[in-house]
Design brief:
alpha+beta; GMP Synthetase, Chain A, domain 3; SH3 type barrels; 2 domains; three-stranded mixed sheet; 4 helices; 25% helix
Length: 176
Amino acid sequence: MADIANVTKIIEPIVKDMGLELVRVKMIGGEDEPTLQVMAERPDTRQLTIEDCTKLSHALDEPLEEADPIDYAYRLEVSSPGIDRPLTRFKDFEDWKGHLARVTLTEKRDGRRKYKAYLDGTDPEAETVKLIDDADEVYLIPFAAIEDAKLIFTDKLLQETQPLSTEGAEDIEEDQ
């Protein structure tokens, strides 16, 4: 099993030196297709272009090869977080306030582990995230208790996360 904290220590300074922010480092694909997934974004656009992904991938190759933090073969995947992005940092819950998210806790709180609710900010002093569901129930969740969280694709989210460029989109051929 890869020590993701150690891998992140190698990756994060490189990402920062490129003027990007690290969103997530995670092993995916299981034993059959182990993949080191690195998600990053530009602070101003919250996205990456294909060129950004290529540059970051090349910048990570040598340091990861030299440090050899993963003791088995794996594939490196560098990507933008996408529209229905994971919420991995405390600041994400404030930045995406007003959007619908799916939040899973490490263990049950008040009889439940999963929430589908709107993000309603954070309390930095208490390190809690505020959620409001469709019935206007309010939940204050400790950030440390969150196992997984991600935005849910909605029209509002789509409007607020338009692609950086649609150049060339008309040239894409779709399989019939």
